[in-house]
């Protein structure tokens, strides 16, 4: 059984040396919509503020909100990339994150070598990677390019390889920041079927998206964030309606 329990999670980013206007402008561009305060002269951005969340088998949570609302930040906390300033995160089950599916690729290594490198980074054993190797290679349709360094790949080819590796995994908890694209229009139809199968296998899924249609299609509950704070949570249509309301937009 998979489980996510988040209690009173708050995340602060202290910004050192943020006194000049150029730094402030970069900060505001980075954290649009975030709460910005000062503590003993240090500028502090509150990425998340008092998040409570509990998910179990079968839950498909959609994260909704403007840019800077805290969606990606919450995913990174669930993935263990960020450690909360306060509160606790308790996760049971194998987590697979698509926050950066090309992470861990070595530009001078071949496509086949990168399958092993990326697979090991994602927690697979060498034997598990070998079992999946033929299937991954066939799905990419990269052929002899898999024998070449990935530095010669186009962005679409690299995304195909990363996508094939990621979706070969078995996950109990799936974290997604928008639906994965492959960068290749001809490849999209084939990729959609694989992606749907990948998502359906997860016991729990948390996905951040700006698309109402994606939230409706893949999720059964939603959490609306504003300035890192929960604004509404519950049924999809109810939360989407609140998202469009004047109360949220102001």
From TrEMBL:
**Does the keyword section mention Transport?**
yes
**InterPro entries from the UniProt entry:** AAA+_ATPase, ABC_transporter-like_ATP-bd, ABC_transporter-like_CS, ABC_transpr_TagH-like, Bact_Polysacc_Export_ATP-bd, P-loop_NTPase
Query: Quick check: keyword Protein transport in the entry?
Result: no
What SUPFAM superfamilies has UniProt attached to this entry? P-loop containing nucleoside triphosphate hydrolases
Tell me the Gene3D superfamilies matching this sequence: P-loop containing nucleotide triphosphate hydrolases (3.40.50.300)
Q: Which residues form the ABC transporter domain?
A: 23-250
Question: Which CDD domains is this protein grouped with?
Answer: ABC_KpsT_Wzt
Entry keyword set = ATP-binding, Nucleotide-binding, Transport
Q: Which GO terms describe its cellular component?
A: membrane
Q: Which GO terms describe its molecular function?
A: ABC-type transporter activity; ATP binding; ATP hydrolysis activity
Q: Which family does it belong to?
A: Belongs to the ABC transporter superfamily.
Name by which UniProt lists this protein: Teichoic acids export ATP-binding protein TagH
Q: What species is given as this protein's source?
A: Gimesia chilikensis
Organism ancestry: Bacteria, Pseudomonadati, Planctomycetota, Planctomycetia, Planctomycetales
């Amino acid at each position: 059984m998979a489980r996510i329990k988040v209690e009173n999670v708050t995340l602060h980013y202290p910004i050192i040396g943020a006194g000049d206007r150029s730094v402030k402008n970069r900060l505001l561009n980075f954290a649009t919509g975030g709460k910005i305060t000062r503590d003993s002269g240090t500028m502090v951005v509150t990425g998340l503020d008092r998040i409570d969340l509990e998910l179990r088998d079968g839950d498909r949570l959609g994260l909704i909100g403007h840019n800077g609302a805290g969606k990606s930040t919450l995913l990174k906390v669930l993935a263990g990339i960020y450690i909360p300033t306060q509160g606790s995160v308790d996760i049971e089950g194998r987590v697979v994150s698509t926050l950066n599916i090309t992470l861990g690729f070595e530009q001078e290594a071949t496509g086949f070598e990168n399958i092993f490198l990326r697979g090991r980074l994602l927690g697979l054993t060498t034997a598990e990677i070998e079992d999946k190797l033929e299937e991954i290679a066939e799905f990419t349709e990269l052929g002899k390019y898999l024998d070449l360094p990935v530095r010669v790949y186009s962005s679409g080819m690299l995304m195909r390889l990363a996508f094939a590796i990621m979706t070969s995994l078995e996950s109990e908890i799936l974290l997604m920041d928008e639906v994965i694209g492959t960068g290749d229009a001809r490849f999209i139809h084939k990729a959609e079927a694989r992606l749907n199968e990948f998502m359906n296998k997860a016991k729990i899924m948390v996905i951040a998206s700006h698309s109402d249609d994606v939230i409706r299609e893949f999720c059964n509950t939603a959490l609306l964030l504003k300035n890192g704070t929960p604004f509404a949570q519950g049924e999809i249509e109810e939360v989407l309606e609140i998202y469009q309301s004047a109360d949220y937009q102001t």
